[in-house]
Amino acid sequence: MKKQLLLLLMAVFGLYMVACQSQDATPSSDGDLEAIQVSAARTAADSTTKTKCKGKLTPIDSTALPSKVISYITTNYAGAQVKFAATDSLGQYVVGISLNSTHTGLLFDASGNFIQIIEKYGKKAKLTAVDITTLPASVTSYVTTNYAGYTIKKAGTNADGNLFVGIANDTTRVVLVFDSAGNFVKVADIPPMNGGRGKGKGRGH
Q: Could you give all domains of the chain from N- to C-terminal order, each with its CATH number?
């Protein structure tokens, strides 16, 4: 009898641990929102720094930014959140920040000295939330066809009319970009988020 009771308790404990692990693996709603925001910031940085930076931008974690960069942001944009950070082939730093719903792109040299504010970054990086129940049929159809098992979590549009759609399954988060007509454009990079890494690019179709 005692042996049967012990086996029962072990089985219940095992189910409890599996349930907890499954919950921990599921991307959070806040993470879904953050994913499309940082992806929009990355896209904005790529499109607005072509004449200011050399080579392709390489995303980095905000914790890797030089102390000079952090000090500049803290002094001039107190309370701002770093949404995107990257370096170019010259070692320059591109940093996208958000403060009171205003997005600003900043450019620093390889030593961390401020160079300039990146024009047009703010409009391109800012997303206007879109109710996922109002997404074009072409968008929902694309997700259903190419990402079976994924659920649409969040969506938003930028100033260019591009639609960023965050989808996820139990373990993976993906951000898809569509044009204003609902045509698929690309799978967006998810740069490091809040000191961590995005879940990856997923697959393109």
A: 43-125 (3.40.1420.30)
What are the start-end ranges of the H helices in 66-193?
67-76, 121-125, 137-146
Would you say 77 and 104 are in contact if contact means Cβ atoms under 8 Å apart?
yes
Within 10 angstroms of residue 178's Cβ, the number of other Cβ atoms is 22
Query: Beta 102-108 vs 128-129: how paired, if at all?
Result: unpaired
**C-alpha count within 13 angstroms, C-beta hemisphere, residue 202:** 24
10-residue mean pLDDT series, the chain (205 residues): 40 36 42 78 80 82 94 96 90 92 93 93 86 96 96 92 93 93 91 48 45
Give the 3-state secondary structure of residue 82. strand
C-alpha to C-alpha distances, 82 to 14, 30, 69, 150, nearest whole angstrom: 40, 16, 11, 28
Q: Is the pTM of this model over 0.85?
A: no
C-beta separation of 176 from 145 below 8 A = no
